[in-house]
Design brief:
The complex is a heterodimer. Chain A is of the alpha+beta class. Chain A is built from 4 helices and 8 strands, in the order E-E-H-H-E-E-E-H-E-H-E-E. In chain A, strands 1-2-3-4-5-6-8-7 form an 8-stranded mixed β-sheet, sandwiched between helices. Chain B has a 5-stranded parallel β-sheet with strand order 3-2-1-4-7, with helices on both faces. Chain B has a two-stranded antiparallel ribbon with strand order 5-6. Classes of the chains: A alpha+beta, B alpha/beta. At the A-B interface, helix 2, strand 4 and strand 5 of A face strand 5 and strand 6 of B.
């Protein structure tokens, strides 16, 4: 069931991290690729351990440190691409691209203390700039349709709805011009 | 309890099957397994039937396995109503590479349309 659709047009160029900006609450925030160090890993675990369960989406982030580590170990693997928004040495938000056949699945989380300050927009643009710089062509995501703030953010970025038939909306973005589409890779149907 | 477990051959449907059989054996449920069409499944209905009979045989239960053709969601809802089942059991969805839970179209239809309780097995 790998019949995801993507916009024909390639998205504009996004800024490549590291970048820095001042958020709407006057905090200095830096966007950087995850460096794989123990210190950054621990800071990420801390952010997710304090994450408001009301902001979970489709079961992630999971609750409890054990499950958080298990989940992070999967999405911080070498074939994934991760970008973090830092406020000092505290993680304000995290965005990730996880490989899925010939495309990548995107997710982004901003800690409740740092929401509604414009960090999400900078963070996702930073992740997509990073993705462009490493040659990723197609990105998809799902979002709960009642999450209007997230849906409008993704639309503003350039994502187009590719499937609106289920509880979650599926959206796609083309990051780089690819060679002609290779035929859809087989994933197990379920 | 009279239980209708709908499976179409996805991984989560087999998990639902195993857990439902396990529970039925303990709780003495009156279990029927309905093998439905699932276009997203790579396992043939015959193999799904065989898998269901094996699971039931291993448990020592006396449960009915039947092939249900046509639109899976509406057929399950219809059978549950006509034959007075107490509950419909389905697989609880699959997870994306990211770990996001996605509920399939059959479960979505049944959740929104069934008059019985619906159990999604995680």
């Amino acid at each position: 069931m790998n019949d995801r659709r993507y916009p024909d047009a390639v998205a504009d160029a996004f800024p490549v991290p590291p970048t820095e900006f001042t958020d709407r609450d006057d905090r200095t925030v830096e966007i950087r690729p995850y460096d794989g160090s123990d210190a950054e890993y621990r800071s990420l675990v801390e952010m997710y351990d304090a994450f408001d369960p009301a902001d979970r989406a489709q079961g992630i982030p999971p609750g409890g440190e054990g499950r958080i580590r298990e989940w992070l170990d999967a999405i911080l693997a070498d074939d994934c691409h991760n970008v973090i928004a830092w406020c000092g040495d505290e993680v304000a938000g995290h965005a990730t691209l996880v490989p899925d056949g010939d495309a990548y699945e995107l997710a982004i989380f901003v800690h409740q203390t740092y929401q509604r300050a414009g960090i999400g927009t900078h963070l996702i643009r930073g992740l997509l700039g990073y993705g462009q710089s490493v040659g990723i062509q197609k990105v998809w995501l799902t979002v709960e349709r009642w999450n209007r703030a997230a849906v409008s953010l993704y639309k503003k970025i350039g994502f187009e709805t590719s499937n609106a038939e289920s509880f979650e909306l599926e959206m796609g973005l083309r990051l780089n011009e690819g060679d002609e589409e290779t035929s859809e890779s087989d994933t197990e149907g379920s | 309890m009279k239980i209708l477990c709908g499976i179409g051959g996805s991984d989560d449907s087999f998990r639902a099957l195993d857990r439902t059989v396990e529970r039925a054996a303990v709780a003495n449920d009156d279990l029927t397994v309905a093998v439905v069409d699932n276009e997203d499944s790579s396992v043939s209905p015959d193999d799904v039937m065989r898998r269901a009979r094996d699971a039931i045989g291993d448990s020592g239960l006396d449960a009915d396995v039947r092939r249900v053709e046509g639109d899976p969601g509406s057929r399950l809802v219809e059978i549950a109503e006509r034959e007075a089942f107490d509950e419909i059991v389905l697989g609880g969805g699959h997870t994306s590479p990211m770990g996001k839970i996605t509920i399939g179209p059959i479960a979505e239809f049944v959740l929104l349309n069934a008059k019985t309780s619906v159990r999604l097995v995680r």
